[in-house]
Specification:
Elements (H helix, E strand, L loop, with lengths): L5 E8 L25 E5 L2 H4 L15 E3 L4 E9 L2 E8 L6 E2 L10 E4 L1
Antiparallel strand pairs: 1-4, 2-5, 3-4, 5-6, 5-7
Length: about 110
């Protein structure tokens, strides 16, 4: 499918994570969050990426790739012009997530393309 207005969005998310904690317990102390197994960009951009809906923490099409050499999670997405919101959800759930300004449980991140 061809879109009239395409914007490229490169999301580079650096997450500094501390020491391990039980994976079964949600915490408000972000320094105790173990390194994630996956990071998903969940939000209103997901239907354009091939996800079945918005705010889906398990959609493979909006997951980031980990680069161990640079210790970053990254992806490149193509979006049509518009207004969007998203967050970074860790490990396929909302138990640990990051919003605006990389704030733990922070507000949605606005995006204008």
């Amino acid at each position: 499918m061809t879109f009239k207005h395409l914007g490229k969005l490169m999301i580079v998310l650096m997450i500094a994570l501390g020491t391990a904690v039980s994976l079964h317990a949600q915490t408000d102390d972000e320094s105790t969050i173990p390194p994630p197994d996956s990071v998903t960009i969940a939000g209103t951009i997901q239907p354009q990426l091939g996800c079945s809906g918005e705010w889906n923490t398990t959609c493979a099409e909006s997951q980031l790739t980990y680069d161990p050499a640079n210790d970053i999670w990254w992806a490149t997405f193509e979006l049509t012009a518009g207004s969007y919101e998203y967050k970074a959800a860790l490990n396929g759930t909302w138990d640990d997530n990051y919003g605006l300004n990389a704030e733990y449980y922070g507000p949605n991140i606005p995006l204008e393309v």
